[in-house]
Design brief:
Layout lengths: L4 E7 L5 E8 L2 E8 H8 L7 H10 L1 H11 L8 E3 L10 H14 L1
Parallel strand pairs: 3-4
Antiparallel strand pairs: 1-2, 2-3
Protein name: DUF1488 family protein
C-alpha cells in the first residue's frame, strides 16, 4: 500500500462515482473518481449499483491512491477529479486516446 492513508470513501450523492479523502503528509485532500472513469479504466459495468462502484474502488485502491498522490502536487483545498488520462502511462497517452476516441465513435 502507498504511504497515503485513506480516511473515508463514499459514492457521490448522485451515484456518479466515488469521493474519497486521503491523508497526505500532514494534510487532507479529497478526490473524486467518476463513474465514467470507473467504467473506462476499471471495467465497471454500466448501470452498476452504488455498492458495486464502491467495491470496485476498494479493489483498485492502490492504483487509485498512486494516481491521486501524483495529482496532489497541483491540488488545492477543493476536491480533485481524477480523469481517465490520469491512469494512462504518459508514453501511451496519444495512441490510447486515439483508440479510445475511435472506439467511442463506433458505438
Amino acid at each position: 500500500m502507498s504511504s497515503h492513508e485513506l480516511i473515508w470513501a463514499a459514492v457521490s450523492h448522485n451515484s456518479d462515482g466515488v469521493v474519497f479523502q486521503v491523508r497526505i503528509a500532514h494534510g487532507l485532500q479529497r478526490f473524486y473518481v467518476s463513474r465514467r472513469v470507473l467504467e473506462d479504466v476499471f471495467d465497471l459495468e454500466r448501470r452498476a449499483s452504488d455498492a458495486k462502484q464502491l467495491e470496485l474502488f476498494y479493489q483498485c485502491l492502490e492504483r487509485v491512491l498512486v494516481r491521486a498522490s501524483k495529482k496532489r502536487s497541483i491540488a488545492s483545498s477543493d476536491t480533485v477529479a481524477l480523469q481517465t488520462t490520469d491512469f494512462i502511462p504518459s508514453g501511451n497517452r496519444d495512441s490510447r486516446s486515439d483508440l479510445h476516441t475511435s472506439a467511442r465513435s463506433a458505438m
